[in-house]
Amino acid sequence: MVDVAEEHGTARDKVEGPPIDVDLISTLTDKALALRLTTSTRDEIMAFVPELDGALRMLAAEDFDPGGDVVILALLNKTKLFLDSNPKPSDVTPPFRAYAWTREAASLTRRLLWLWCEMSGVGHP
Known about the structure:
Elements: H1 4-8, H2 22-34, H3 42-46, H4 49-60, H5 70-85, H6 95-120
């Protein structure tokens, strides 16, 4: 099984860690995915980076058990690869790269959120 949490040092304590706010993360990903490169400013794009990075890492640190499901395993591997090979954008990152990072982070976050909701019995956002 993929262990994103240990590699990135983001495992949250299941008892004392922050709860996963489904509505907040769902709204965050909706807004980030609604950004358009042609009409969004660099500041608008960059405003999503810290929250998306935190939400994605928090969800990636969850103990997902793919149970042999190749789709879940592929999502976990894709998330690990994204976190390992795509550094968070900074002030010197070209706008298109920041935009692409934001969209991919939002997409992965949304899919992990759906998976977490399904596995925890919360219901879909």
